[in-house]
Fold this sequence. Notes:
The termini are close together. A 6-stranded mixed sheet has the order 3-2-1-4-6-5, sandwiched between helices. It has a two-stranded antiparallel ribbon with strand order 7-8. By secondary structure, it is an alpha/beta fold. It contains 11 helices and 8 strands. Helices cover 45% and strands 11% of the residues.
Amino acid sequence: MSYASSLESRIAKAVARASIEHRLIEPNDRVMVGLSGGKDSWALLQILDVIRRRAPFPFSVIAVNVDSGYKDFKHDVIRKTCEERGWEIRIEHTEIGEVMDDLLEANATPCSLCARLRRGVLYRIADEVGATKIALGHHADDFIETLLLNLFFGGALKAMPARLVSDNERHVVIRPLVYVSEQEALDFALASELPIVGCCCPACGDLGLQRQRLKRLIGDLEREHPGIKASMLKAIQNVHPRHLLDRRLNPLDAIARGGAVDADEDGGARGATQPLPVLRRTGASTTSRLS
């Protein structure tokens, strides 16, 4: 079975790579896609359907849209599109928009609170539909922006994991588009003739928000230095804990026992430095054929 386009082939292979490296999609999974109606979640749903039909093992996909309750949100368009393409869809109507108005302080950014509230709804629905994985449409640019947001404004050196087990260990959140750029997701959604539906939140797309400002900064840097986004994404996968200041990673007694660490001119460590543990690619002979 051939792919519909070179773009579809490239995205499918990127998702397959992510699935192999991070154990995202496994035999008999029931993958619940958080479908907001934006370009990223549409692209994720479309490519998972493509992969599902080609995969050497069975898994199913169900889309779930959480309607935050904003006026004029086009949940009917989302339902119609999914039904026309044979995709299982559930729309959950909520009053998240009104709840946020009560909880937010003046001039506070609503996006993070909205995401947490919507995530709670998705967890509940995952139990109801028997989902084994919750798939979100975060792409490579989201990972990079989150890294810099935490670095600049959060005082933490972290991004997002491609696979996350919830605190109660009942749910597994996956991000299959980790190696797919935002532009690729947009191009794929448009090429697939999927309707991009805004969430109707008054703050949506506000360029004054921190993430939007960082998006512009990264875009400017990428134009000046092509490949810088790829380098930042690679950096998240190439961590040298001995060259950080977190004493949980570098307890003083362990350093004293291990002796001094020599550093190369480029900052790489020699001698006592130990590599990070690497996730073993179990079943690669099967899962590598996802694409």
